[in-house]
Design goal:
Blueprint: H1 3-8, E1 14-21, H2 25-36, E2 41-44, H3 48-57, E3 61-62, E4 71-76, H4 80-90, E5 99-102, H5 108-118, E6 124-130, E7 151-155, H6 161-174, E8 182-185, H7 188-209, H8 224-230, H9 237-246, H10 248-270, H11 274-293
Parallel strand pairs: 1-2, 1-4, 2-3, 4-5, 5-6, 7-8
Antiparallel strand pairs: 6-7
């Protein structure tokens, strides 16, 4: 290889330097966790005032054409399409040898499109989904301990086994200040199937539950059960709309299943069928215990 070509493939990043695209709840929490550990973090946000606020207390500066090539790790923490668009526009600025991850709650569309953008590039894209969050959004609610002991789901790229292990070990090192409790490897397809049940369905049910007119009269009559079931009714509607539709097949199936199950309870209640209702309740209790014992 000519000297010029070798120079073009030489890393330009500063070791451990991180760029965060999107400084909302997730991106802001990554930035705060990494900065608190002494890592140099640069950030970008569509609303520039958020970037300016982050510069006061967290990030070292703005993620620009000049600082992108200096980052060893870039975290795409925006909405799905924003993350895809940013990577497409900035792909040629990213340093050889750098790692790019995302935090998006769906993986098929992200891994397909970002994987295609990364083809032929000297850097690596790894699909990721940190299993943490709150019902609130925005940089103001981000916190450095957001990911402590939380699982991180990782969709490894298609590459040689030894290269994949090396990339994952580097990624664990780069994310060490975040304090993830585990790293779970998955395919994009399996991730989206599982997340439709464990996360997306919960948001749909919670959001629908508070639409009862009785919800407006709950004060003085509600305790833990109400709080647990309604916590994620409060959500970022534009973001969750995008996530739901990007996983429409899996989510629709889960919604259909819960509608069928709820109908069985309603039928037993309407019929005043105590035996049937008790069977349904006992079955749910058993399945919950079995799931928790796994």
């Amino acid at each position: 290889m000519a000297e010029k070509d070798q120079a073009a493939l030489s890393p330009t990043f500063v070791p451990d330097r991180v760029g965060v695209v999107g400084l909302g709840l997730m991106g802001g929490s990554f930035a705060k966790a990494l900065a608190a550990a002494g890592r140099e973090v640069y950030g970008w946000n569509r609303t520039h005032s958020v970037t300016e606020m982050a510069e006061i207390e967290t990030i070292a500066g703005e993620l620009t054409d000049k600082t992108i090539p200096t980052c060893e790790l870039i975290i795409l923490a925006g909405y799905p399409q924003v993350s895809i668009d940013w990577l497409g526009e900035m792909a040629n600025l990213i340093s050889p040898g750098a790692i790019v991850i995302d935090t998006v709650g769906v993986k098929r569309i992200i891994c397909e499109r970002c994987g295609k953008i990364s083809e032929g590039q000297p850097w690596t894209f790894v699909g990721c989904h940190p299993m943490a969050g709150t019902q609130y959004s925005g940089f103001a609610h981000a916190r450095a301990n957001m990911f402590h002991n939380a699982p991180m789901v990782v969709v490894p790229p298609q590459m040689d086994d030894f290269e994949r292990v090396a990339i994952l070990e580097r990624l664990k090192h780069l994310l060490e200040p975040c304090g993830f409790g585990s790293f779970t490897l998955s395919t994009a397809e399996n991730h989206d199937r599982m997340i439709a049940y464990t996360s997306q369905l919960a948001h749909v049910v919670s959001n629908a539950y508070v639409k009862s007119p009785t919800a407006q009269e709950h004060k003085g009559f509600s305790a833990g059960s109400y709080k647990d079931l309604t916590r994620v009714a409060r959500l970022n509607a534009p973001m969750w709309t995008e996530l739901f539709l990007d996983n429409a097949d899996n989510l629709s199936r889960e919604v259909g299943t819960i509608i069928e199950n709820l109908q069985a309870y309603k039928d037993a209640i309407d019929a005043r069928d105590a035996e049937k209702l008790q069977t349904l309740l006992a079955e749910g209790d058993r399945l919950k215990r079995e799931a928790e014992a796994r």
